[in-house]
Design a protein that fits this description.
Distance between the termini: 64 Å
Number of helices: 8
Shape: extended
Low-confidence stretches: none
Number of strands: 0
Order of helices and strands: HHHHHHHH
Length: about 150
């Protein structure tokens, strides 16, 4: 059966069920909001109960959210949440932690060095490379403009 790309595209679209865009958007919004609310609650907790300054409490919140998402990824819970919440779990810092931990878990059978360590930054590596590169370029621009 020979089909052109356009005919194949029409065939696939006719057989695919429509994406529940509104439902997915609401889930993403709610889950992202829940993660941010948890972050704010942790910030208040660290400031009031532990007596940390705002900057130190913010760092503690980041570390806590990264730890929670790494543990939930390891237990297989984060992926179930992300399946329903979509981008709501990927946008905050939790998504970055999940992106680092997931490949490491997938390749742990290959050993600590060639499995976990080598594959840990498969997904997160490009984010780090382009983020660091952009910060260097922006820093150089600021220095050249005399603002640095």
């Amino acid at each position: 059966m020979d089909m052109t790309n356009q005919e194949y595209g029409k065939y696939v679209n006719s057989r695919s069920k429509p994406s529940p865009c509104w439902k997915n958007s609401i889930w993403a919004f709610c889950m992202g909001g829940l993660i941010c609310t948890l972050g704010q609650a942790l910030l208040e907790f660290y400031q009031s109960s532990w007596g940390l300054e705002k900057d130190d409490a913010a760092a503690a919140v980041s570390v806590t959210l990264i730890l929670l998402s790494a543990v939930l990824t390891g237990l297989g819970i984060f992926d179930k949440l992300a399946k329903h919440a979509g981008a709501g779990t990927l946008v905050p810092i939790t998504g970055f932690a999940n992106a680092v931990v997931s490949p490491a878990l997938e390749f742990k059978s290959e050993g600590l060095v060639m499995g976990v360590a080598a594959k840990m930054f498969v997904i997160a590596g490009p984010v780090l490379v382009f983020g660091i590169s952009a910060s260097v370029v922006y820093g150089l621009i600021l220095i050249l403009l005399g603002a640095g």
